[in-house]
Amino acid sequence: MTTAPSRYSFPSNPVADPKATVTGGTKDKGGYRFTVLTERLLRYEWSDDGGFEDRVSTVAFFRHFDVPHFTVVDKGGSLEIYTSAFHLKYDKKRFSSDGLSVKIGDDVWRYDGKSYGDLGGTARTLDNADGRIPIDPGVLSRKKAYAVLDDSESMLFEKGWIAIRHPGRKDGYLFAYKGDHKAAIKDYYRLSGKQPVLPRWTLGNWWSRYHAYSADEYMELLNNFEKNDVPLTVGVIDMDWHKVNIPAQYGSGWTGYSWNKNLFPDPEGLLKEVHKRNLKIALNDHPADGVRAFEDLYKVVAKALNHDTSNGAPIRFDCCDKKYLDVYFDVLKAALEKQGVDFWWIDWQQGNHSRIPGVDPLWVLNHYHYLTSQRSLDMLEKPITFSRYAGPGSHRYPIGFSGDTLITWASLQFQPEFTATASNIGYGWWSHDIGGHYWGIRSNELTARWTQLGCFSPILRLHSEKSQWNSKEPWKYERDTCEVMKEFLVLRHRLIPFLYTMNIRASYEDEPIVQPMYWNHKDDAAYSVPNQYYFGPDMIVAPITTPHSPATLLGGVTAWLPRGRWVDLFHPSLVYDGDRHVRIHRTLSEIPVLAKEGTIIPMDATPKLRNGVTRPTDVEILLVVGADAYFELVEEPENEDSSVDPPLSSYVRTPISWKQKEGVLSIGPEWNGSGKWRQWSVKIVGHTSTPTKILTPSYSVHTDVNTSCTTINFGNVHRWAHGGRFEVHLGENLQLNTVDMSPRIHEMLYRCEMGYQIKEVVWQLVTQNRDPVEKRVARLWELPIDDKIKDSVMEIWAADSRAPGSAKGYEGCACAWTTC
């Protein structure tokens, strides 16, 4: 049996600086301890036995902060603590709502033993969810100036192994941040630990299906993806990889560790072939039933555990038995990993109880699977697991599996909000069943919209149930849906240079890739669009999660745009003024992804994408002009550090900058790289007239202009050419195109399924009537046509205040016009 000492060793620093603590009480009457971690973060503890907890909890790995400034006033029978952010009052008795309070600004928290964070966090699973479900609190609030994270019941770790709490102790954290959401999250990560860096391959397309594949069928599946030019990075094989139809005396077939040789006669050969296609392989594991006598490794596991096999007694799953867990990893799973399994999908669905009160099996599985995966870094590059959310602190064990989702519009409609609010508890890497798992209906439109959401989700994993009627191969859908799915699966792969940089940003800068709008804007309106989110620092995604209008044949979503000017990356002929709500309408092939002026997005421009991921030799820069822009492309260290967390300075970095006034785009110099050649191009989104001039000598360009964008190909550029920087002049003070309303409105009306005569009335009213715009908007709303048509007209008419005849500012001229 191999050993994995690293499984019981992980970074932590759980003991606070004594200078930050205020302690009192006695062993007989109970004691209190307050730890001022920052001027806005307070730990509070009560203990019946007078002792306090300094061990690592699942929430808190790092309690040793620099000591902040605070003042203590001890009046004998009462205690007060002051910082610049809060004022604590305490009667020195067992915690109660009357005896312990903290004033933050004009708000007061009174102890009640509960967690509180009204902006929500996330939930353990979306199993059986058909729409919105209750979610646990995060550490952010809007209604109150504080959030509270009660940690009294969480599991502990002692010398690397699980431990339990002493009874009669209360333990919690008060986040007194008054709406400073990002500061609260950063301090939460300081307390709990950062999000780890994911390996690059996790950011591509995953294939998963609950289906009894044979080896030949699985290879045929991969062949079909290649024939359809859809790249993959991960293949997940659900539970039918192992023996399922087992003798009745053994119970359920959900748990298994022996290959089904009828389907996979040569497991090693299959895994080798999959690896040749540059895919990582994960197997599903339902571990609850332990190891039973029909398993190939039953006797080997039994011998390691001194288990009597004479009567074929099962080896029970016991997450609280360290010896069992060692054998589970180092005998049972190590044998399968030796055959070629890269990582594990942990499908624990049996609740949060074990034989030791307070020990949740999901916590144990997630924690030790993640640490054990370090032994496979030669294949994985970074530690990884794939499992459900266990509670606050779970962000340390990516990637999250959100459970078996229903195939309904309501399920799709909740997922963007669910993903965004998860960041409120630091959980940034959800993997959803894209397209839904089971039940529901077959809908081409629903599947297309879900795939678009998946493209702009932390992880894109297509999935479906065990049914002859349900699978997510794009070519099994109608032509339009097939093309949309393929387009967005390819786009996801092309976004990997951007996604990997966001991955580094999430870990080293505490910025999850998906963030609710209110993280970056204090406007009340930022809270009114829970399904809308930032994807990186400059892109806003407003997914369409409802069926299209039968009148316009367009899907719609209400978005809120912050101040400034925004362009839709998929529909660059429309430029929007911000600081307002906008009803956005799009065909099936488009999802609203809006970028602000001054945005740079690097993409893989490899002409024909293949499975797997490597650093691209062809890079296209999406550039949105109108303001200065900067993006630092980050890639793995070329001399990979053997440590799990190399210093940020070791990563390869290529700065890309745009100077708006001068009109100069600069690429490089590349830091820490080997100076290889790359093909570079820039696509100026929403701008069409560019007098290009190369400032770096000896290079030429090719320019391609269409109706809404300019693409400039720089050709082969050496990373270190001319001092390491390549510069091109694209034109001084370039601006986004002014919206040409007439062709846009004509195109939209032409598609509408409405009477031809009334269609002409609308056209004349919007484009040729000489009356004031305000009156024409009011007349539009009086017309006897579907409101979705009016919404679609107004979107274009009021998009850009620079456009002649724009209705911007008159959207509210009729009571029928609503923005939200």
From TrEMBL:
Limits of the Glycosyl hydrolase family 31 C-terminal domain: 511-601
Transmembrane segments: none
Residues covered by the Glycoside hydrolase family 31 TIM barrel domain: 196-502
Keyword Membrane: no
Biological process terms in GO annotation: carbohydrate metabolic process; N-glycan processing
EC number: 3.2.1.20
UniProt region (Disordered), positions on chain: 1-24
Sorted UniProt keywords: Glycosidase, Hydrolase
GO molecular function, one term: alpha-1,4-glucosidase activity
A Pfam family the protein falls into: Glyco_hydro_31_3rd
Statement: the UniProt record of this protein carries the keyword Nucleotide-binding: no
Residue spans of biased composition, Polar residues class: 1-12
Domain of life according to the entry: Eukaryota
Reaction catalyzed: Hydrolysis of terminal, non-reducing (1->4)-linked alpha-D-glucose residues with release of alpha-D-glucose
PANTHER family registered for this protein in UniProt: ALPHA-GLUCOSIDASE, ALPHA-XYLOSIDASE
Family: Belongs to the glycosyl hydrolase 31 family.
Stated name of the protein: alpha-glucosidase
Origin species: Lasiosphaeris hirsuta
